[in-house]
Design a protein that fits this description.
Elements lengths: L1 H11 L4 H7 L2 E6 L7 E6 L2 E7 L4 H17 L5 H7 L5 H16 L10 H8 L12
Parallel strand pairs: 1-3
Antiparallel strand pairs: 2-3
Length: 137
């Protein structure tokens, strides 16, 4: 996964998930998705979309965009909703992978400082505190 992230950044010369998504031809939309959904990724008629909950903070919108971009890069052709309804596969694994991708993308090129806490590092690189469990010091 780290190599995939490095190649993306090298090719498009940015680690910004919004710029990467646009460069990859993924359409970004903002909608009120309710209290329990922060974002989603879907394909329709060979077009790819990331939908981000419009009421999220900028920090969370950036993380969600990176997370959904992770689904695009890591889980091509996988329909999470189909898996939930028709198999015993736990979609939690896909979500954890997308979270790791997002953290890797957003923290790329920015190392933790000596004696810096994970929480402080997350704040400095713009990763929501709830996602600090995916940081690998």
């Amino acid at each position: 996964m780290d190599e995939m992230i490095r190649k993306l950044i090298r090719k498009y010369k940015t680690s910004c998930p919004f710029e990467l998504s646009r460069s990859l031809g993924i359409h970004i939309r903002y909608l009120d998705l309710g209290k329990s959904t922060k974002g989603l990724y879907y394909r329709k008629l060979r077009r790819r979309f990331i939908v981000i909950h419009s009421e999220l903070s900028p920090e969370w919108q950036r993380f969600v965009c990176a997370h959904e971009l992770g689904h695009d890069r890591l889980h091509k052709g996988i329909n999470r909703f189909f898996l939930e309804e028709h198999s015993y596969f736990a979609p939690g694994k896909l979500e954890r992978q997308a979270n790791r991708f997002a953290v890797g993308l957003l923290s790329s090129g920015t190392a933790m400082l000596q004696d810096e806490t994970v929480e402080t590092y997350c704040k400095r690189v713009g990763i929501p505190p709830e996602m600090h469990i995916y940081i690998q010091p």
